[in-house]
Every structure is written in structure tokens, then in C-alpha cells.
Amino acid sequence: MGIKGLQGFVATVCPDVCRMVDLREMAEKHRIDHPDFPPVIVVDAMSCVKYWYTPESWVCGGQWREYLAILEDFIKAFMAAGIKLVFYFDGVVEEKKRNEWIKRRFQNNKEIARIFQFIKTHRKQPGRGMFVFPSALPTFTRFALKSLGQKTVCTLQEADFEVAAYGLEHNCIGILGQDSDYLIYNTCPYFSIEKLRLDRLVTLMYSREHLCHALGLSLAHLPLFACLLGNDVVPERLLEGFWDKCLVTSPHKNNSYSRRANVILAVANYISKVPCSYNSLKHLKEMLPLGSDKTLLYRGVQSYLLPGQQSPWIPPNVTNCQTFSLQEQTAICQDKEIFQVAKEQHIRSENYTIFNILSSGETECSNSLEDECDTEIPGQALIYRPARQHIYSVLLESGKGGACPLVKEWFVYFGNPLQQPELIQPVQPSVPGGTPNLKTLWFAKGPDVEKQRYSTFLACFHLQDGMEELQALEAPVAAFCCLLAYLMMQVSSLSLEDLNAFVAVILCLKGKSAAQLAGLQLAQVDSRAVHLGAVFVRGLTTLLLANSACGFPFRMDDLMPWEMFDGKLFQEKYQQSHRRCSLEELLEGNESLYAPFHNMKSFICKACVAKKRTIQSRPRGDGFITGTQQREFNPRFQQAHRSSFVAPYHNPMRGFLWRNPQPQGKK
User: Fold this and answer.
1) CB environment 469-500: b (16+ within 10 A), e (fewer)
2) Which strands sit side by side in the sheet containing 422-424, from one edge to the other?
3) Where is the signal peptide (predicted)?
4) pLDDT value of position 112
5) pLDDT at 353
């Protein structure tokens, strides 16, 4: 979170703290000073994502091929200067940050509600001022960077600590991000992603030394300074009285400054007069209304100490060597081999959410672009919960006797107050021959085991009977069919027109470049299609979770959105389908796609009929949703996904996008 207002304070009150630097020149100087070590910048990826996502369209579900091309250009600019990048992503939400996380989720809900109201009123995307991330953007950014050959790290604790520690340990030329905490850590220089000019590789560099000079402090003061302004450890609400006392005695009060700027100056003035010692910290504790937890200040200061560092505010026999042995001792998974592999894959960004479940039994999912007024489409968290329950069962081996632990979920959806985690019961999937144990799925080799991995994956989505047909397809297409069939089974309001739109997207996407997709213009934006796009993309993260749990029957690269989805293209196909356009128009006049189109529908319809689910034709024309009445929360939705079905197609899957393409006559 950083220190509220500190970066703005620097820009307005003491601009000498930062200066423009040329990263090429800094890299060259590093090469001269350290000829055996290439220049490295460590990137706080989570604070950069909003600056990386620059495609014009952001509400429709994500312009994934455009985004991938942007990331590639970003990497190439640094490579051309001989600078190596190392990307860090938050791998956990720490308990101390849960309340702040929840607060932000409710704020995001309000922002998303305003976005949908704008779309319904104006039938177009709002301006960039209302920008929110496309659903699951940070998750897929991580895999995108990895697919582009970059070192990508998923953290075991708060990312800013690990970023600062890596920068210090590896003598990096700097940290690239947008988080004022990097002004506090005693580590390598801090560069602004917001001010980065990629074409010239110049940006603002912030100087801790100059900040200290401007405030009359030393580097040793900065961790306490951060705590007394309020941070992730010490809440601001406990400090209001202390700030008022500081303001009374401050000689720097300036009526032209904001209250926050005056508070920052007053707190710095107060600290500058306090001797740097543990006894001073003990005295300070007595002044603050810290309630029952008198260790807050101590823990807050300690949280900024990187490995090997000490502070005059902390007794010299205490160091901040943060280890994860406790995490291992209290882990739900007591198999050390499984736990270690999950941890290593997590750090290397090779799996998705698995380590969090095996270590703490806890997982979370942030906001999605979902319309809380659309009563026909349940929250994605509820749609994919039955699949997650099966995945949890595979991971925690719920059928192997003994009590199976419940999984704590913090998932955002309409009606969830997020006052505590929901406790989710693992449910065994119906795997032919029984669910293999985790060691078999993860470590065993041979064709029989590969078949077990695939069938276990499919069983998580109630598609174990479709294994032979799916295995004949190209991997991204098989994964797409799996997800779409599950979605059609779960959500009774989805129509044949919706199905047609989704199928047309993956078929027409093939061969389209990022530039072609960027050039696609929409006459209008449909709010229901925005909602469905977000639900589909969240479904892709459920595929990632299942794939990680089942020992990777698919390559993770085959489950990425740029392989099977584009937001604007889906909007176009959705609107065409609901206007009852011809198949020729829907498939852009490409007759070679007709048979694959019908065959994909055939498979999905057959899967639905097996679950007694009826997919009906419900064309909406241009009848955009404009209602604002909120839905009534139905906590029993997860039980209400079994309806009936009549399949309109029975074509076999022959001839459709085989792994080894065969000549195919026109049909």
C-alpha cells in the first residue's frame, strides 16, 4: 500500500528528491563498475500492470494479443540497452493486509457498478478515468512475461519486501515500480514506472538521501517515520491524536500545503528530535493509543529491515531474517515432497494458487467486471465453485479417509459481505477408476499416468465422458470446449446465441494479429457481453488451477486468453449472433470454419444433454440491458445448476482442428 500521500508530497513540497535519469547511461556505468555482472532492474510488476495495459478497449474482457505485444515491446526496449529485468508478483495476501484488501474490494464494486451504468446509458466504454483492470489481468500478466522468456517470481510474502531484498542482494541498478515504500527500504535506487518514457528509457529516480536531507532525518529514521505516518502495520486511525500534537509544535506549518503535507513535515520534525534508540521507541509506544498490541511500532519498524540489516530502534540481538519454517510446520499438506514442489513451482510462477491452498488452506479472488444488476448471470465465484470443490478434493485427497480440511475462500461476488472467509467443502470428482493420489499425478511417468491426469482434469468440469473427443483436438481448442461446456451446463440463462458467439470467437481469432484486433471498431458496447467476457476469462483461471492440481495435462501456455479470446471480437460476435446474422457473416465468410463450428457446438450440446440441460434460442437483438434494479442474493445458487437439455446437433468431432491437421473437404 505504501505511505499515503508521501509520493505526492515529494512531487509538490520537495521536488529535489527526484530527478530524471537515463537508464541506458546507468546501465553503462554499472557495466564499467561491475564488468562481471550485467545490469539488472527488479520490477514490482503489480504496481506496473495498470501502466502496461494500454489497449484502447478494457471493458470487453481484455485485448490479450494486443497486451502481449505491448509486453514484448517493453522487454525489447530494455534488452536493447543490455538491461535484464526480473519481475516480482504478489503471491499472497498477508493477514495484516486482509482488512485493507476487503476495503479495496468494496470500493472496486462501486467503481464497477458505475461502469455498467455508464455502458447501459451510453452504449460505449467509459473514458480512461474510470479504468479498472480487465478481470484476472495480473494473473495472466505473470504467465505472459514467463512465456516471453522473462524471470518471473511469485512471492511467499508481501512483494515489496522481496523486491527490495532482491534489489539489495543482487546489486540491481534499481527498482521499477510505483510504491512509496521503496522510499523507505534501504535498498537500491527507486525508479518510477509512471514517469517512464520507454522510447528514450528515461524516468524519475527517487533519492532516499535527498528525502532525508529535506526532512532533517537520517536513513535510520525512515522506517519509524513511515510507521508514524500510517502503513500496513500501524493503522492511520491510531495516529490522529499524535499528528495533532506534532502539528501544534511544528515550525514548518504552511497554510498553502494540504493537511497531509503538513502532517508529514510535523512528524518528521518530531522524529528528528528523538534519539535513535530502543528506549526512545518504548517511550513513544506509551504516547500512542495502540490498544492491547504494544508491539505495533516495533513490528512496523522491523518490517522494513531487509536480511542482514539492523536498526537503532530494534535491540541489536534481534534481526529480521524472515523464514517460512512456520508456514511449513502449520501447512495443511504434511507431505514434505509435495509441499516443496508446490512451493518451488509457486516461486517460479509455474502453477496457480496451489501453494496457497496446500500451505494455509486459504485462497482469494478479486473483483471481476460483473453487473450486479443482471439477475440472470450468477457471480463467477459461484459458477466455478463446483469445479473448485473438485480441485480442492484432488489437492487435499478428500477420499483417502480421515477428515478433509475445508478451504477458506475470500471470493468477491454480489451478496458476499467478506466479513470472514467462506468455508468450502472439497467434493470428490467422478474420475473413472477413482481419483489418483497427488504423488501419482505429480511425479509418476508413462502414458497411463498421462491419461489419468487428463481424465482427472476433465472430471473437475464434469466432462470425463468426453475425453476421447477432446484429446483429438488441438490443446487450446480442447481447453476452450471444456470451459464453454462447463459454463453452458452451470448457467441456465445462457442461450444458443451466446454459445454461437463464443465458438465464433476462437475460430475467427486464429490467424488474427494484434494489429488487426486493435483496428477492430465497435459501433456500440453491450453490457451483458461485457459481463460474459469477464466470466469467461475468470473461467480460464479455473482451468489453470485444475491444470496445476492434476499434474499439468495441458501446457499452461495453451490455457492463456490470447490463444482463445479477445474482448472486442467477442462483443462483435455476440451482437451479430443476437441479431440472428447468417453463419456466413458470423464466421467472416470463411467456409472452412463451418464444419468446425458445428462440431464444437455438437460436443458442447452433447455434454449438456448428458446433464439434462436445455440450451434455448433467446436472441436479444439490440435490446441492451438498461435496468438498475439490484438482484436479490441467492446463496443457494450453487445447487441450482441442473436443468434439462435437448441437443440440436449430433455431428461427430471428425475433421475439426486435429492436433495433426488432415486434409478436409469443403462441407
Assistant:
1) bbbbbbbbbbbbbbbbbbbbbbbbebbbbbbb
2) 362-365, 407-411, 422-424
3) none
4) 98
5) 96
SS3 282: helix
Q: What is the dihedral of CA 481, 485, 486, 491, to 10 degrees?
A: 140
- Averaged pLDDT score across all residues of the chain: 90
**Looking at domain 1-7+19-213, which CATH architecture does it have?**
3-Layer(aba) Sandwich (3.40)
Strand duo 422-424 + 407-411: pairing:
antiparallel
63 vs 59: CA distance, rounded Å: 9
Q: What is the 3-state secondary structure (H, E, C) of 535-566?
A: HHHHHHHHHHHHHHHCCCCCCHHHHCHHHCCC
- What is the residue type of 104? R
Contacts of 145 (CB under 8 A, 6+ apart): 45, 71, 75, 87, 152
Provide the residue ranges of all domains of the chain, joining segments of one domain with +: 1-7+19-213, 217-323, 353-611
Is residue 518's pLDDT more than 80?
yes
| Number of residues assigned to the chain | 667
Task: Give 276: exposed, middle or buried? Use CB within 10 Å, 0-12, 13-18, 19+.
Answer: middle
d(CA 428, CA 444): 21
Task: Give the span between the Cα atoms of 113 and 610, in whole angstroms.
Answer: 37
For residue 541, name the pLDDT band (cuts at 50, 70, 90): very high
Return the DSSP state at 631. Answer: P
CA distance 95 to 76: 37
Q: Which letter does DSSP use for residue 611 in this model?
A: T
Question: Residue 358 CB: number of other CB atoms within 10 A?
Answer: 23
Which carries the bigger pLDDT value, residue 297 or residue 572? 572
> Three-class SS of residue 407?
strand
Check if the beta carbon of residue 164 is closer than 8 Å to that of residue 151: no
Please report, as a single letter, which amino acid is at residue 110. K
Cα–Cα distance between 386 and 364 in angstroms, integer? 16
Q: Which of 92-96, 531-535, 568-572, 587-591 comes out lowest in average pLDDT?
A: 92-96
Strands 202-206 and 84-89: unpaired
Q: Which helix (H) or strand (E) holds 356?
A: helix 354-360
Per-residue pLDDT of 491-510, as tens digits, reads: 999 999 999 999 999 999 99
Q: What's the mean pLDDT in 105-133?
A: 97
Closest to 302 measured CA to CA, from 549, 121, 96: 96
Cα of first residue to Cα of last residue in the chain, in angstroms, is 58
